[in-house]
Design goal:
Elements (H helix, E strand, L loop, with lengths): L1 H19 L3 E19 L2 E14 L10 E10 L4 E10 L5 E9 L2 E9 L7 E11 L7 E13 L3
Antiparallel strand pairs: 1-2, 1-8, 2-3, 3-4, 4-5, 5-6, 6-7, 7-8
Length: 158
């Protein structure tokens, strides 16, 4: 009985907070330059650390994350059979507010989730998916350039 009452109170107290958060869609194009460094290898598996920097444009212009810059770091396992990676990114808007995120996936597509933020992005949560758009000519054997399309939703408690 006491547990049920505590649960009911928690639902009533939490309900107003959930009602204040509104899910907002985002649709962005992200383009970056990424440098990879080999960490180790064993057999046909190579482990790499990547460091990328880039810019975003929202669709339509002026939408969420339009004109932000970002920096990502990831670890990648690559073999003849598969490539998988996971990492973290920091997006910074023109006012210096940050949105932090985590991702995991393969070169064919990856999942994204927001893990924190500052300023107008404080309390951000949500996420989405990203698919590659275009790979550009390599600048060197370890430096690549690419663009991708990301969609999803985010919420911020007001």
């Amino acid at each position: 009985m006491r547990i049920a009452k505590s649960f009911a109170i928690a639902l009533l107290v939490g309900a107003p907070l959930a009602a204040l958060a509104q899910s907002v869609p985002y649709d962005i194009k992200v383009c970056n330059i990424t440098e990879a460094t080999v960490i180790d290898s064993a057999g046909d598996v190579t482990v790499l650390a990547t460091h990328g920097r880039g810019i975003t444009d929202s669709n339509p212009a002026g939408g969420p994350f339009d004109g932000t810059t970002y920096e990502c770091r990831s670890v990648m396992d690559a073999s003849k059979v598969s490539v998988e990676f996971s990492g973290r990114c920091t997006f910074v808007d023109k006012d210096g507010h940050k949105a932090l995120g985590a991702f995991t996936g393969t070169p064919k597509g990856w999942e994204w989730k927001f893990v924190g933020g500052t300023g107008k992005w404080e309390g951000i949560r949500g996420g989405g998916t990203t698919k590659p758009l275009k790979q550009y000519a390599r600048l060197s054997p370890t430096v690549t350039a690419a663009c991708a399309h990301a969609t999803g939703t985010y919420e911020i408690n007001k």
